[in-house]
Design goal:
The chain is α+β, with helices and mostly antiparallel strands and about 450 residues long. The protein has 3 domains: about 160 residues, no CATH class; about 90 residues, Immunoglobulin-like; about 160 residues, SPRY domain (Jelly Rolls). The protein is about 35% helix and about 30% strand. Its main location: cytoplasm. May play a role in the negative regulation of cell cycle progression. One of its GO terms (molecular function) is DNA binding.
Length: about 450
């Protein structure tokens, strides 16, 4: 029978061996992942190089075709000019030639007739001579057509030099560049309920960007579509289905340039957060197809339009964007609440925090001293909340404190919101007394 010490040493060795095996397995998995990363990097280099070769060959082939066409068109234009000049200036020479040839013929006929008259009989001779002299007197034998001198008629030539070759050569030698990486890359993808915030940055210090262009597509789609063109370096892409992978890419346009840069390396992002939706069927409001935009309609019905579910969790950012405005009223409100309470015409009540269209901030129905700028078309109002204390149950059933930050137009109000009981998620809502207000939530 083994002594206890030897059994303990053996068990310890087995444990150490198992730990070494697990470490080796983990090490092998890490190395395998790095090999896969190397393969993906190699594939990206080779595929992008192949695509670049194809793009270069096509571009220069198209360029040669265009240049050949332009040269042919210019040659044709110059040849047409030669034909026109030749035709326009040969025509009067042809007319002059006809006139001279007619005069030569007339002179020859007159010579022959005169010789016959001179050689005729005496009686007949006088008559023929008289007739001949009469005829000759009517022909202006001293009138000669004017023939232009050689210095007065065109002498065509082509003025050609090789300066265009120098200009074209200099342009061609500088035409096109090959970049090892795009000048902009996607920096961060942040999930939002029903959306993804895409942030990008410039990675080429020598590149001066004037505009950026963002595209996205479902990973199952073959077609990218534009979602943003502008000078900002972040954008929230809405209409994102939860738990679906999307690809994003961005490019830039240099200052004073028309063409776009190469696309960034596509990044995959998705959102696990359920989209925010307004409650459908409320008489006073019309909703968009995705139910994330509410329009106060002409109905006389009043009350608070709530979210369809408590989808706002503290720790996240809730954003309202006012797309259009109507006539303001002191009861107007945009905010969050613990639960839906029918019978109220505003969120300016207990267990709710909200902002009025005049910028007033209400906590549990009481107006705060600090307020935000008045709401206008395009105003964005954000709510950020974090738990401050989790109190133990007391005689009132417990307490729960949230630190709330409401921001609008580069100003913010911060306060603590004391609730009767702990809650992880909240409803959001809005109320407007007059039609025309349209609010998007995300």
């Amino acid at each position: 029978m083994e002594p206890p010490a030897e059994r303990e040493d053996g068990a310890q060795l087995v444990q150490e061996a198992r730990e070494s095996i697990e470490a080796a397995q983990s090490y092998g998995r890490e190395l395998g992942q790095r090999l896969q990363g190397l393969q993906e990097a190699r594939r990206q280099i080779k595929e992008s190089a192949s695509q670049t070769r194809v793009a270069l060959k096509k571009h220069f082939s198209d360029l040669k075709g265009t240049l050949q066409k332009l040269l042919d068109e210019r040659l044709g234009s110059l040849l047409h000019q030669v034909d026109t000049i030749e035709l326009d200036n040969i025509k009067p020479l042809d007319e002059c030639q006809k006139l001279i040839e007619h005069g030569v013929s007339t002179a020859e006929d007159l010579v022959r007739e005169g010789e016959i008259a001179v050689l005729g009989g005496v009686g007949e001779k006088n008559e023929k001579l008289w007739s001949f002299t009469q005829k000759a007197s009517h022909i202006q034998l001293d009138s000669l057509p004017e023939v232009p001198s050689l210095v007065d008629v065109p002498c065509l030539s082509a003025q050609l030099d090789d300066s265009i070759l120098t200009i074209v050569k200099d342009q061609i030698l500088k035409h096109g560049t090959v970049a090892s990486r795009p000048p902009v890359q996607i920096e961060e993808l942040l999930e939002k309920p029903g959306g993804i915030i895409v942030r990008w940055c410039k990675v080429d210090d020598e590149f001066t960007a004037q505009d950026y262009r963002l595209q996205f597509r479902k990973s199952t789609s073959n077609h990218f579509e534009d979602v943003y063109v502008g000078s900002e370096t972040e954008f929230i892409v809405l209409h994102i289905d939860p738990n679906v992978d999307y690809q994003f890419r961005v490019c830039a346009r240099g200052d004073g340039r028309q063409e776009w840069s190469p696309w960034s390396v596509p990044q995959i992002g998705h959102s696990t957060l359920v989209p925010h939706e307004w409650t459908a069927g409320f008489e006073g409001y019309s909703l968009s197809s995705r139910r994330n935009m509410a329009l106060r309609n002409d109905s006389q019905a009043s009350g608070v339009l709530y979210s369809s579910a408590p989808t706002y969790f503290w720790g996240q950012t809730l954003t309202f964007r006012v797309e259009t405005v109507g006539q303001p009223d002191r009861r107007d409100s945009i905010g969050v609440c613990v639960e839906q309470q029918n019978g109220h015409d505003s969120l300016q009540r207990d267990q709710a925090v909200c902002v009025g269209t005049n910028g007033a901030v209400f906590v549990n129905g009481k107006e705060m001293t600090n307020q935000l700028p008045a709401v206008t078309c395009g105003t964005t109002v954000t709510f950020d909340m974090e738990a401050v204390t989790l109190g133990l149950p007391n005689n009132d059933g417990g307490n729960f404190k949230l630190r709330v930050t409401i921001s609008s137009n580069n100003r913010e109000v911060v306060f603590d919101w004391l609730l009767d009981q702990s809650c992880d998620s909240l409803y959001f809502g809005c109320s407007f007394s007059y039609p025309g207000w349209k609010v998007l939530v995300f």
